[in-house]
Every structure is written in structure tokens, then in C-alpha cells.
Design a protein that fits this description.
By secondary structure, this protein is α/β, with parallel strands linked by helices. The chain is 21% helix and 25% strand. 44% of the residues are buried.
Length: 269
């Protein structure tokens, strides 16, 4: 289990690869998109992990909330979800409203599932959660118009953390984020191209777009994600670092080693 001690008024972050992120603040331990198995390669082949998982699902005994951004198996991993649900019986799972049944089919009790709807805030134990509609190439919605791809903004007493999930850049996203005063922005940088789209690998923002977006919304810190786990869908993080230094010198960022912990003290509190 991760050592989750964190200074008063700070936040602790652990990056577990891909978009798997752990955040602790105000006594809550939160997991985003935990992919803690090798289930994709075992089921479909051709997608081995580039590195072992830093944490096994059955070792996650401290989860209070698990946020899942969309249904792709490197984000909503059945093995990880079921393992965490068993190891952390106190955990609740936040998922886009159209995907509630995905968790029911994994034997997650309905009272542990929270359906998130874009534009409708959730109040959860001292934090406000704003769900932001994403385009993983395009919008995808259910018959009621509820979005299947979401990013999440978590607010504690004015401290705003943004986990983008998977998304490309589009005007509505820029405006939605601009008004939220994001302090820490966690965003994919693996981009999109014709070849990967033809292999059914949906697109994300590029390293340039992630840096440009960080500047546009005025975030204090950017954490790049989604560039390291699968050989066929990666990005060289050195390109991101080079662009940040040339285009936005002085912009703080953090490149993680999988399993590494970072303690962050807010610059705005």
C-alpha cells in the first residue's frame, strides 16, 4: 500500500502509469483511471505493459473514491476495478452516468456507484466535483444526451485539480476550464494521427496542445500523462519538456517515474 501521509493543506500525488493517478488531500485518497493489471494484453494480445504495475489491485486498501473517465479498458479496467472494490470496501466509484451499468456488471453494488453528468456538480465529503465533457475525437452520448467521456475538476476550498481523462482540444473545453482557476492540470500528451486512428486508437491532445492549454487556463503545475505504458501508443516526453522550456519558460511541470510520490503545496492558499 502507498504511504499516504501528506502535509497539512498540501496534496500528495502518485503516478502509476498511463493516466493512473493517486491523489490525497484533506484525508481522502482518490484513484483516477487505475490500470493496475496486464488485462488488455492478456485478453487481446499485442499490448504488453512497458513496465510492471507499481501497485496491484489487491494492495489498494486505502481508496475512498475511484474516478473513471470513460470505458476504454486502460481507464476502466475490470481487473483493477474489481480488485480495488474488494480490497477497499469503503471505496465509491465515480463514473460517467451512461457507464453505471458497466460497473454493475462487474458486481459493484449500486450504492457504491456515483453517476457523473457534465455540468452537474457533485458534493462528496468536503470536495466539489465538476464533470467536464470530453471529445475523444468526438462527443459520445447516450440516448438521454449524457456524455460517455468526462474529465473531472476536484475542488477543495478553492484548490482545483483537473484530471482530463482522454480528450482532444476544442473551444468549449477551453472556456469551461478557463473559468475554473485550475491549479494542477493532469493531461494526456500522446496526441493523435491517421495511423493510430486506423487502428482504433482514439486521439488525445498533443504535447504542444497540453502545454498551450496549461498556459491558457493559467494552471500553476502541469502533470503530463498517457505517454508511457504501451509501445504502440506513446509519445517522447522529451518533446514536451523541450516545448515547455522554449514556449513557456518558467512554467512548472512534473515528469513522474511510475510509483513516484510528489508532495505539492498550493501557491494560491
Amino acid at each position: 500500500m502507498l504511504n499516504t501521509e501528506v502535509p497539512h493543506e498540501g496534496a500528495a500525488f502518485w503516478h502509476l502509469g498511463q493516466e493512473s493517478l493517486v491523489v490525497k488531500r484533506n484525508g481522502l485518497t482518490i484513484y483516477f483511471d487505475p490500470y493496475l493489471s496486464n488485462s488488455i494484453d492478456e485478453k487481446y494480445g499485442g499490448a504488453p505493459r512497458n513496465f510492471p504495475t507499481p501497485l496491484k489491485p489487491e494492495e489498494v486498501t486505502n481508496a475512498d473514491y475511484v474516478f473513471l473517465t470513460h470505458e476504454h479498458p486502460d481507464h476502466l479496467d475490470p481487473v483493477s476495478v474489481q480488485g480495488i472494490a474488494k480490497a477497499s470496501p469503503q471505496a465509491r466509484f465515480v463514473v460517467p452516468q451512461p457507464l453505471r451499468n458497466n460497473l454493475v456488471q462487474l458486481d459493484i453494488a449500486e450504492e457504491r456507484i456515483i453517476g457523473a453528468i457534465a455540468g452537474t456538480p457533485l458534493e462528496l465529503e468536503g470536495m466539489t466535483v465538476h464533470s467536464v465533457a470530453c471529445k475523444h475525437e468526438e462527443y459520445e452520448t447516450d440516448e438521454q444526451g449524457n456524455h460517455k467521456f468526462l474529465g473531472y475538476i476536484l475542488n477543495w476550498d478553492g484548490f482545483n485539480l483537473y484530471h482530463a481523462g482522454d480528450t482532444v482540444i476544442f473551444p468549449e473545453l477551453l472556456e469551461n476550464l478557463k473559468s475554473m482557476r485550475i491549479e494542477v492540470a493532469c493531461m494526456p500528451i500522446n496526441g493523435h494521427d491517421f495511423k493510430r486512428f486506423g487502428q482504433n486508437l482514439m486521439g488525445n491532445m498533443t504535447f504542444r496542445e497540453a502545454a498551450d492549454l496549461t498556459d491558457f487556463i493559467g494552471a500553476d503545475l502541469i502533470i503530463p500523462m498517457h505517454y508511457d505504458l504501451f509501445a504502440g501508443n506513446t509519445e517522447n516526453p522529451a518533446y514536451f519538456v523541450d516545448y515547455i522550456h522554449r514556449a513557456y519558460p518558467g512554467q512548472p511541470f512534473k515528469m513522474f517515474v511510475p510509483g513516484e510520490r510528489m508532495l505539492y503545496l498550493s501557491n494560491r492558499l
